[in-house]
Design a protein that fits this description.
The chain is an alpha+beta fold. It is built from 4 helices and 8 strands. A 3-stranded antiparallel β-sheet has the order 3-4-5. A 3-stranded antiparallel β-sheet has the order 6-7-8, covered by helices on one side. Belongs to the RAD52 family.
């Protein structure tokens, strides 16, 4: 017997997230990774996500990941990418390093595999969007002036009648055991 997605599952997957479950980066609004995975786990605790292919484009200094997500025997594929700058080998653990920009716009050095993890997270979110998770964000336009939680709260209320104080959506502000200053992307 297979466990297929129901109409109720699809409605749950498509529900807008609470404003605090979003991040804002370079003019875009994103759903935090923990919120995406919690939403999917609420529908199917046995969901799966697999990386099908990882490619490094040295000319464009990008990592591209192709992935597959399965929720209740329904499968969707997605592609994620992350920018990187190769910095060569350094004394720091003698690993390849990349320079990336964090959520505050600061240049930071990270191990090369961080770009791959970032691309995989991007692919995860894109697979989830194929199930309807976070798809409402594609309706955001530049003239909506949404660049922070307060502006997103206004936009969600205006367009989706989402109340930021709805108790059913207030599990927590951050994933458990995560420092409050860590940004999920």
């Amino acid at each position: 017997m297979t466990d297929k997605l129901t109409n109720d599952d699809i409605i749950q997957l498509r529900k807008p997230f609470q404003p605090h479950q979003h991040d804002f980066l370079r003019g875009f609004t994103y759903v935090k990774e923990y919120a995406v995975t919690e939403r999917i786990e609420g529908i199917d605790p046995a969901w799966s996500f697999e990386i099908i292919d990882t490619r490094i484009d040295h000319n464009r200094q990008q990592v591209h990941v192709t992935a597959r997500m399965t929720v209740r025997d329904s499968t969707r594929d997605g592609v994620g990418s992350a920018d990187m700058q190769w910095m060569g080998k350094t004394k720091w653990e003698n690993k390849k390093k990349v320079s990336v920009t964090d959520a505050q716009g600061n240049q930071i050095m990270i191990a090369a595999n961080e770009a791959e993890k970032s691309a995989a997270t991007d692919a995860l979110k894109r697979c989830a969007r194929m199930f309807g998770v976070g798809r409402y964000l594609t309706e955001l336009r530049s003239n909506d002036n949404v660049g922070n939680v307060q502006e997103l709260t206004r936009w969600l209320k205006q367009n989706f009648d989402v109340d930021a104080n709805t108790p059913e959506n207030e599990k927590h502000d951050e994933p458990p055991d995560t420092p409050a200053n860590y940004t999920w992307t």
